[in-house]
Amino acid sequence: MNKKLKYAAAAITVFGAAIYLNNTNHLAAHQQSKPVLLAHRGIAQRFDERELKNDTCTAARMLPSTHQYLENTIESMRASFAAGADVIELDVHPTTDGEFAVFHDWTVDCRTDGRGVTREHSMAYLKKLDIGHGYTADGGKTFPFRGKGIGLMPTLAEVLAAFPQQRLLINVKSRDASEGEKLAAVLDKLPAERRAQIMVYGGDEPVEIVRQRLPDVRTISRATIKSCLLGYIGYGWSGVVPKACHHAMVMLPINVAPWLWGWPDRFLSRMKAANSEVFALGPYQGGEFSSGIDTPEQFAQLPQNYSGGIWTNEIEAIAPLVGK
């Protein structure tokens, strides 16, 4: 019996050593490159993020403004690239006249002088709206951007034309599979080398359609990111990368990262081998995946010489920290 226990103990020791050697970061090659910076919504007006709900009007709780840019506009995107962004995230909604409007909210009531569900309007109507109409930092006493955002809501086609070579992340705001069909049709008209610079994330159903129609476009959805990360935590010690992590944009909350086998360098290498790209986010707390690495304190939580991607709402603050 003692001999059997010794053999079992030896086997467990060897197995544990194999897992350690297969996952220790000390033996992993470090990628000597600067982080890839992703600017969420471009340069945007920040708002009080406490106790947010799905229907919270964030424009009505704007923080005191430090710049003149409005999110999801071509001017904002251009300024973001100039500030050091490598990728710009933008939000889209299909319109009744066959376009894609670049706008965050499900309705236009909060930010603009219009009314109704964004996707139930024509682009011709949306172009007439003032997208700066609803911004206020003092409870409605003043509206510093009112009248300054008329006609600034762009179409996806205009963004693609304005930035023909830059990297973009397109956020599909619905769970309507037909929206995935429409977006895939738009992207399918682009040259393959241009599609390689575009990623898509959002609702499970439309993103799955894009993934099926355009396998050369990196995608991620709420369902697939959970499948990817939970699968990797479960059996990534073996070196096997879950299927959901392949050819994907892996969104990684900073408080989840330490649970991943081989974090950071071995994990990043495995994702790269799976043709995926990793972007570190702010801590996940059960809400939307839009919290970013936005302060020097959050940036300091990343591993030293971290070489993966960084999702940020404050490109102006984070870019200097990585030398961009």
Automatic annotation (TrEMBL):
Chain coiled-coil ranges: none
Biological processes annotated in GO: lipid metabolic process
PROSITE patterns, A to Z: GP_PDE
Top-level taxonomic group: Bacteria
InterPro entries: GP_PDE_dom (IPR030395), PLC-like_Pdiesterase_TIM-brl (IPR017946)
Single GO molecular function: phosphoric diester hydrolase activity
Residues in GP-PDE domain copies: 51-322
PANTHER family, sorted: GLYCEROPHOSPHORYL DIESTER PHOSPHODIESTERASE (PTHR43805), GP-PDE DOMAIN-CONTAINING PROTEIN (PTHR43805:SF1)
Protein name: Glycerophosphodiester phosphodiesterase
